[in-house]
Specification:
63 residues, mainly alpha, YdcF family protein, two-stranded parallel ribbon, single chain, 2 strands
């Protein structure tokens, strides 16, 4: 069990390091609350060339 955990942790760490060295293709929000959408809209002003994908928006009334 310990070997499995160490192997999984090493694989995950290497994958995260490799993935973080590539540019972002899009911002993706998996629904949730309006606060997530507002935060992403504010973040997107810094990166206007990156598209935004929202899987399902907040239900009405969201604000």
């Amino acid at each position: 069990m310990r070997l499995f955990l160490i192997s999984w942790l090493a694989f995950t760490t290497i994958t995260l390091i490799f993935s973080s060295s590539h540019p972002v293709d899009a911002f993706f929000v998996l629904g949730g609350s309006i606060q997530q959408e507002i935060y992403l809209a504010q973040l997107a002003t810094q990166y206007p060339h990156i598209p935004i994908l929202i899987s399902s928006g907040s239900e009405d009334p969201c604000i």
